[in-house]
Structure formats: C-alpha cells, structure tokens
C-alpha cells in the first residue's frame, strides 16, 4: 500500500504564491555583473576584430570561390554576431 500523505501543509492560495514570487527576486552581486558583462563585451569586440582581419586576409580567395556568399554577407554576419554579443554584455550590465 502507498504511504499516506499529509496535504495540509500544501494549502497555498494563489495570492500567497504571487506575493512570495514577487519577493523572491534574484539579485546579482556587482562583481558578477561586471565580470559577466565584460566577458560578453570582450568576446564581441574580439570576434569583430579577428573576424574582419581573417576576411581581409582571405578576400582574394573568397572572391574567386564558387560560393554565392561574398564579402558583404560575411561581413554582415560577423558584425551581427559581434553586435549581439556586445548587446548581451550591455544588457547584463544594466539589467
């Protein structure tokens, strides 16, 4: 037979649950925010400079290749990834 369970402790009203969830907001320490935002911003800056540098080095090969994705679309891809990472770093810093 299954053991008997006591459900009296679980009588929580919806308004009580909402109040507890509102009070239980997680707050980061300052050093966690600084480290996290610096990591994202640094990764975004690094990916932009290294990606654009590699594109400049490989430009002749890329333009001669059969791919329909030439320099413009590749630069857009690198810029959008970098901007997303930097945006994540800024969001992490201020939210």
From TrEMBL:
Species assigned in the record: Penicillium angulare
What is this protein's record name?
A: Distal membrane-arm assembly complex protein 1-like domain-containing protein
Q: Which InterPro entries does the UniProt record give?
A: DMAC1-like_dom (IPR028036), Mitochondrial_unc_protein (IPR053092)
Which controlled-vocabulary keywords does the entry list?
A: Membrane, Transmembrane, Transmembrane helix
Mind telling me which PANTHER family this protein's record contains?
Answer: ACR195WP
* Top-rank lineage group of the source organism: Eukaryota
Q: Which Pfam families match?
A: DMAC1_Dmo2
- Give yes or no: UniProt keyword Transmembrane: yes
Query: Where is the secretion signal located?
Result: none
Specify the Distal membrane-arm assembly complex protein 1-like domain's residue ranges. 28-65
Does the record bear Transmembrane in its keywords? yes
| Transmembrane stretches, start-end | 34-55, 76-94
């Amino acid at each position: 037979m299954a053991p008997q369970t006591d459900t009296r402790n679980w009588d929580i009203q919806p308004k009580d649950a909402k109040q507890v969830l509102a009070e239980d907001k997680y707050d980061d320490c300052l050093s966690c925010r600084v480290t996290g935002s610096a990591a994202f911003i640094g990764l975004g800056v690094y990916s932009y400079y290294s990606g654009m540098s590699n594109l400049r080095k490989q430009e002749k090969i890329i333009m001669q290749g059969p791919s329909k994705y030439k320099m413009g679309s590749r630069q857009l891809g690198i810029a959008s990834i970098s901007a997303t990472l930097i945006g994540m770093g800024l969001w992490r810093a201020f939210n």
